[in-house]
From TrEMBL:
Gene label: apaG
Superkingdom as given in the UniProt entry: Bacteria
Membrane-spanning ranges: none
Organism: Qipengyuania gaetbuli
HAMAP family listed in its UniProt record: ApaG
PROSITE patterns, per database record: APAG
Gene3D superfamilies the record matches: ApaG domain (2.60.40.1470)
Protein name: Protein ApaG
Length: 132
């Protein structure tokens, strides 16, 4: 089955695409635990090699609580992308509410060593309605 990327943003020739899915089997609504998995594809549409160095996420839950998550690379990697190349990874996000959102940016470095930020598009996290 082909993954459907619902959200995308392009910065300086780098496109970030996001597909997000709620995982009911990993969630426990009775315990205020909801879990989503997201698949990200980073595409280098520029004319030079770039390397992803760090990530910054802004995760907001339904109560308006905001968590900022910073770290090196993505899932333990700092991919180097040649022109035309792409990098895919999958990660997850737990929340204590049935909906929220994520957005952020990656910091990349160009071949000359200069850093630049690439936007990660805003995407909602929404659990399906449940009878209750």
């Amino acid at each position: 089955m082909k993954e459907l990327f619902q959200h995308a943003a392009t910065t300086d020739g780098i496109t970030v695409r996001v597909a997000v899915n709620f995982l009911p089997e990993q969630s426990q609504p009775d315990a205020d635990k909801w879990f989503w998995v997201y698949h990200i594809r980073i595409e280098n549409g520029s004319h030079e090699k770039v390397q992803l160095k760090t990530r910054h996420w802004r995760i907001t839950d339904a109560r308006g609580m905001v968590a900022h998550v910073d770290g090196e690379g993505v899932v333990g990697e700092q991919p180097l992308l040649a022109p035309g190349a792409s990098h895919d990874y999958v990660s997850g996000c737990p929340l204590e509410t049935p909906y929220g959102s994520m957005e952020g940016f990656y910091t990349f470095v160009r071949e000359d060593g200069s850093p630049f930020e690439v936007r990660i598009p805003f995407f909602p996290l929404a659990a399906p309605a449940t009878a209750g």
